[in-house]
Write a structure and sequence with these properties.
CATH class of the largest domain: Mainly Alpha
Order of helices and strands: HHHEEEEHHHHHHHHEEHHH
Structural class: mainly alpha
Radius of gyration: 25 Å
CATH architecture of the largest domain: Orthogonal Bundle
Number of helices: 14
Strand content: under 5%
Shape: globular
Largest sheet: 2 strands, antiparallel
Length: 390
């Protein structure tokens, strides 16, 4: 009787498990992205309706980009932290903006310095003309997501933010509310700039203003593109553009889950994700991001050969270190002690990056490099200051 009762209970238990799915529940099949979730970059740039490009506007923007006159102390330019030889980024963990001298690893603050390091790693400006682009959707350059925290939309809006920021270009001499007026007043006193603004914005009675300065800078930055990588060639039909090993790396990139965030033609979903990346040691305070949840924007994977170090804090010197970090994240490790497990993005914690695949994935990522972009540096700038402030 006891045996019969026990068997009955086991049968009922098994049937119950089958009904509520607690033990035989079918798991949802793992979704693996395909090459269709990636894409080649367009060969042409889309310009905003209210800022069509012109040679005059681009040349004006180039000079402004390299001219320290845009900074409070006239000692740092946009190009100081976005250097052509570093893919318009910089080979530093986080940048030294105002009150610095030198270039690359030799850049240092001046003595008796009160200016902090720039808060985050200097992102490349190359291909920002395509920020936010998605496959099979019309591109809207006016709404392109900018910065590590997405606080600006479009290159025109982005262009003036570094000028207003204390540690980047403003310095202590001017307040955030009056620095732009100061810069415009300076530019209006320079005859060459008066002439160049008049040519670029010929239909306006007072062409030298902050909005046109932003438009010129944005027009120039949209010329800084690299759209003919070997991966782009492969996606456009050249099956021999990638080697067998690189194709294996592409497959490992997809099956490991990298493309869940690094998708589309720019290899970025341009969304905020909390990954527990360690903070830079260059600042005392922990960087918790715009929403205080340690979430930062997915960076592009294009031209990574030239843009080390990596992540918003610049804490990883090599791509191998980045991939090892993701392997640790998937294993439950959190590198930033300020981030809780409940905050971690499940897209990262569910990745399947294995050590054996890392070299192949890096091999594939190197197919996203294109060195054929404009690296022209003007011999001089209209202000007469040192080009790039260096």
């Amino acid at each position: 009787m006891n045996i019969t009762l026990l068997l009955s209970l086991l049968v009922i238990g098994c049937l119950s498990c089958g009904q509520d799915g607690s033990s035989t529940r079918q798991r949802k099949p793992k979704v693996v992205e395909t090459i269709a979730d990636l894409g080649a970059l367009p060969e042409r740039v889309t310009h905003p309706v209210d800022n069509p490009t012109s040679p005059e506007k681009v040349e004006l923007g180039r000079l402004l980009f390299f001219d320290p006159v845009l900074s409070g102390n006239q000692d740092v330019a946009c190009a100081t932290c976005h250097q052509p030889e570093f893919n318009y980024a910089e080979f530093l963990e986080t940048s030294i903006g105002v009150n610095g001298s030198g270039t690359g690893s030799k850049r240092r603050f001046a003595h008796a310095n009160t200016i902090p390091f720039v808060k985050r790693n200097s992102q490349s400006i190359l291909n920002t003309a395509f920020n936010g682009i998605e496959n099979h959707k019309a591109y809207q350059p006016e709404s392109a997501p900018m910065f590590w925290d997405l606080r600006a939309k479009g290159l025109e809006q982005q262009a003036l933010e570094p000028v207003r920021t204390l540690e980047e270009m403003r310095g202590n001499a001017f307040g955030e509310e009056n620095i732009i007026d100061e810069i415009i007043a300076r530019i209006r006193k320079i005859p060459t700039y008066q002439e160049l603004f008049a040519k670029a914005f010929y239909n306006e009675p007072e062409p030298v203003n902050q909005w046109n300065m932003a438009k010129a800078l944005a027009a120039y930055e949209r010329t800084l593109i690299a759209t003919n990588t070997r991966f782009d060639q492969y996606m456009r039909g050249d099956s021999n553009a990638l080697s067998t090993g690189e194709k294996e790396g592409l497959n490992a990139f997809l099956t490991s889950g990298c493309a869940k965030c690094h998708s589309g033609p720019m290899f970025s979903d341009f969304k905020l994700h909390t990954l527990g990346v360690p903070d830079s040691g260059n600042r005392k305070e922990s960087d918790s991001g715009i929403n205080n949840d340690y979430a930062f924007r997915t960076p592009t994977l294009r031209n990574l050969r030239y843009t080390a170090p990596y992540m918003h804090s610049g804490k990883f010197a090599t791509l191998d270190q980045v991939l090892l970090f993701y392997e640790d994240v998937a294993g439950g490790k959190i590198a930033n002690p300020n981030v809780k497990a409940s905050q971690m993005d499940s897209l990262a914690t569910h990745m399947d990056v294995n050590f054996k695949d890392i070299s192949r994935i890096v091999e594939f990522l190197n197919t996203l490099n294109d060195d054929a972009f404009d690296k022209t540096v003007p011999a001089s700038v209209p202000s007469g200051l040192r080009v790039s402030g260096l």
